[in-house]
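Re: the pair you flagged

First of the two:
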Amino acid sequence: MRYRLEHWLVRLIAGMMRPLSPAMVRAIGTVIGLTFYYGDRQHRRVARRNLMAAFPRKSEAERRMIARDMFAHFGHVLVELLKFSSLSHARMLELVEWEGEDRVQHAFARGRGVLFCTGHFGFWEQHALAHGLRFGPMAVLARALDNPFLNTLLEQTRCITGNSVIYRQGAMRRAMRLLASGQGVGMLIDQHMHSPDAIDVEFFERPASTTSELARLALRTGAPVVPLFALPLPGGRYRMIYEHPVEPPSDDSPDAVREFTQRCTDVLEMYVRRHPELWLWMHRRWRDTGTAAEQAPGMFPTASQDVEADA
């Protein structure tokens, strides 16, 4: 019953957002996010602890402001996807500015497909939707939501511009086939991992258990890895940025997978440092640090539920 109620609540909110302007939707998202900030003491505490560890030189007032702005951004993420996905394809593209298009074109020109990586930063879902219209469909490696009704709704949303979603067993093999055919594959790399393929890399000078699938795919296939980020612009618009491809480690690297994963994580950290309010600090990214973050419920399902690495 709870899952059905959540599903219909989301559909109700989506219907309410449809006639509103993007700027009005963003304003509503701010209200929703700040409501969570003041009402969700547990995740607010996790965010502040994470910010304290990541930015020890910032004042308490600065960290509190980042946390507040981050919750507001989380409200934007929730409602703006509902609005954006209801628009015509032409209107979606009208709301988007592009940076680094030539990097994508050059990466595809190598003929080995392209791996795109990002994190729970900015407006990653809108970026994937717009990317499908501008550069052709990509397949997104994802974890299913606990609520099957919401997961079906989210998958339908993710696929409205031609993209596809890859879950569970066989994910690596399917991704390799898509890359071999010259297509794009996208992946988030900022979730805490418990799966056998997890490796520790440094994220904000703290060890963070991270998927190694991105690096393994890149090293096996030779596909370039292009980090992408979606930043908010005034008026409910977005700037979609494609960074330079991440340079792979040398052939004689003693730990190429870890080194490649670290380089990709470093690019994500660079953006989070520039725009800390756009990353979800209430996420349990460092679960093995012994902080209160271990005790708060996670925002995402565990890795074993959905994406499993192939041997």
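Second of the two:
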Amino acid sequence: MKYRKLGTSDLQISEIGFGSWLTFTDPQRKQVAIACVHRALDLGINFLDTANVYETVLGEALAGIKRETYVLATKLFFPMNGADRGLSRKQVQKQLDASLKRLKVDYVDLYQCHRYDFDTPLEETMDALTREVESGKVRYVGFSEWPLDRIEAALQLKNVVRFVSSQPQYSLLHREPEKGLLSLSAKAGISQVVWSPLAQGILTGKYMPKSAVPANSRAADPSMSGFLNQDWLAPATLEAVQEVGRLAAKANFTLPQFALAWVLRQPNVASAIVGASRPEQVSENASASGTHVDPSLFAEAERSLASRG
């Protein structure tokens, strides 16, 4: 496993991170989820990403593991109940304390604003985050999917903590961060920790053109399919993905490994966060770290996906 520096922090995080959204929200998969965390740690994955709405099982999985051996990131913003949501001073303090209790730790390495809160003044949010860093409960702070103008506004504020990370969706099928976020972040000393680098499972190649979705896939799960970009299930897109899979085979990689290596080709990316439904998937994804792929294959993959109907 290779490691990269996270922004201007002193954190060295694994190129492949492990996220707990899908695996840990299903109580019936609890033991498999814990096994996936342990496999990740065994493989040298030290960056673990979660959020207040789905972090309970991760706390159990980390019980007995030395705190200094992993970098723990969590988030706040989305509703915990009817009243608890957003990035107000009260919510930052309340949700952080609750997260520490669920995760069974004294501090988190990275505390992230899951989205931008237009109902709370930016100054209030940044002041609240600064206080938590000063308290020692948080080491560094980041954001996810903030508008560019709000990022710039935060960077202009004085006497507040500075962001070290951004968590955008980024993959061969979703390249929005290239429209300003990557350049702005690089100038500001902010690294990307990417979510959905496999495009919600589309870039695993398991969805075949003009075929029924696999029974055990996210697209077939009523609780998960609503989060899936349905346009990516179009036959033209799936045919292009299969072509990318053939390119990956030329480089002696699986399609997921190729897709992760594509994300990691970008120097502003510190880590690509993956999920897993079984430990074997963690192992396959982890092997994408440190790989070299001929840039011409990446360029051909980009052309194939750009030309889909």
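The chain is about 35% helix and 15% strand.

-B.
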